[in-house]
Amino acid sequence: MRAILILFLIGFIGTNAQSQKRHFRQHEVGLLGGFSYYIGDINPYFHSRYPRLAGTLFYRFCPHYRYAFRAGFSAGSLYASDKDFNNPLQQQRNLNFKSSLYEFSINAEFNFVDYRLGHPKHIMSFYTFLGAGGFYFRPKGNIGKGWRSLPELKTEGRSYSLFQFCIPFGIGFKWTVSDFIGFHVEWGPRKTFTDYLDDVSQNYPMNLTIGPEATEQHLYSFRSRDFFEARGTMRGNPRTKDWYFIYGFGINIRLPAKDPACHGMSY
Fold first, then answer.
1. Percent helix, strand, coil in the chain (nearest 5)?
2. Average pLDDT over the chain, rounded to whole?
3. Quick one: pLDDT at residue 262?
4. CATH of range 2-256; options 2.60.40.420, 2.40.160.20, 2.40.160.60, 2.60.40.10
């Protein structure tokens, strides 16, 4: 994330250096199609280990050749399984999860060189972006009986919110293919403030819920170990938060200008 912040700052400085003649008004809509994946307690290191289809619909407002503002809605999913790793502790823990993911975010984009969709000269640029967002998720687990929603089972004896905040940021490359159409490729990490994207964070619970949910909670929390041996021991790593990522290929379309006189090209 530090590298992205440095790139973001470089873009901001470049914007100020060119501010005297690059103002205009342009509106775009677009779609990014690609994949989502996660890094967390079940998949701690491997990027793109479990890619799942994802997409983003967005609106972009461009007031300058060097920067723009974008609002978008993204949908995707996340998945990981302990059994796919050679780590003996993960093999013994034997957890898995999948989750739908829905995100709304607002981002500021900074182009490293002058860029404007439809301009005959400023046709391509690398860019970086940084913003704020919120997302909804619901992890599910499978012990051979189909996928079961996990939050209400309190597999670690704790409750957590399914609505969370995130900081989206990333890098990309955009280019123009016609007066009204542009393409881009983008990779965007999301820093979250929860460790429960995968329903794994801290310790095995000391006690199980009393009632009809007790047996099911036991099965989904302790999949390979006896309860009395495992209770109170580490189930995840509470010192790190989970991350998710969205990347792919996109198309954006410039909307017609209401007042053509305000949208003339500035060479």
1. 15, 45, 35
2. 88
3. 47
4. 2.40.160.20
